[in-house]
Amino acid sequence: MLRNPLSVGIDIGNHSVKAVVLNQKKDQLELSAFAEIILTSAIINEQHSVNTAALLSVMRKLKKRLPFGAKKVTLALPDSAVISKVIQLDTDLSDEEAEFAVSQALGASSPFPVEELWMDFFPLISDSFSSPTMTAPYQVFASRKDTIDTRITAIKKAGLTPKVMELQTHALLWLADHYRAVSGMNEHWCIIDVGKRQTGFCIKPTGAAAYHREIAFGTSQIPDTSVEGGDNIRMLSLPEQPSPPSDVRESFTKQLANHLKRQFQLYNSTHPRAALKGLWLCGGSQDVVSDELLSRWLGIEAVWMNPLSCFPSSQKLDVISTGRYSQYAVAAGLALRGLAE
Q1: Among 52, 106, 126, 213, whose CB has the most other CB atoms within 10 angstroms?
Q2: What's the pLDDT at 291?
Q3: What confidence tens digit (pLDDT) does each residue in 119-141 have?
Q4: How far apart are alpha carbons 282 and 171 in whole angstroms?
Q5: What is the pLDDT of residue 322?
Q6: CATH class in words for 81-146
Q7: Homologous superfamily of the 6-80+148-338 domain (CATH)
Q8: What would the 3-class secondary structure string for 87-136 be?
Q9: In the chain, domain spans
């Protein structure tokens, strides 16, 4: 049976839209393409919905830089845009009854009306039950329809086919699993995604559920020292912008280290048998965070991740074994996720 082996992961961020294309070639994956379109203005609002017309314009530009036939797309939502909860359901419910029960549970806790939400749910335990009256835990995800539909509309109008909508954390964990598989690593490393408004902390301990926390700390808190008074705020990691002064970089890295220390304490208190051995840093903030200083202050190894380096690449691509590509982490994880469908 013939099928399209190309999987496109698209990460719609605050400052750029990034795409990674993976090609399934028998028993190995190949990096076929990667591209980034820098945004000239914001396209995501505070409610996480996008400006469909603006995103469509970006997607048309992005599509021109993708291989022919690269149409199957996996997207992601920020974790803060998704309601996640675990509820108990009777195991003898029909699909319609289970959906109704989930809607009732969401209605009791969601800040939004249920009719404004798209939801998905699945059992966390797949074993058969001896009694039809037993209950089982179900994972429930929900997000505002407008948050999802604005993205889907733009993707479809650009001539692409959206297949999966994932959480950003899950995309990063897919990438971490692949990293470990390629390197043969057995130690527990955490992914730190340094963003504009917040920093993600995620890890999947062996034999345990994924652990994720969002830290209300990001690069938007760095003052623009090029403006008199230093009152303006900007992102300091875009290619066209100069690197921040060394003292600004050191100060931001130290603040990040202090935030992470608190997260380490919380994580270690609940996962004493899965101690952290290192950090993979990702996001578009390579000019802002010093991995060397972070390693020193935290007492464990911290390195900037190059997510593209763990895939053999097409001969048409430039050498990517070196370089700064950490901003492609989410897109690479999404492309991996798409190949699992």
Answers
A1: 106
A2: 95
A3: 999 888 655 444 455 888 999 99
A4: 12
A5: 59
A6: alpha beta
A7: ATPase, nucleotide binding domain (3.30.420.40)
A8: EEEECCCCHHHHHHHHHHHHHHHCCCCHHHEEEEEEECCCCCCCCCCCEE
A9: 6-80+148-338, 81-146
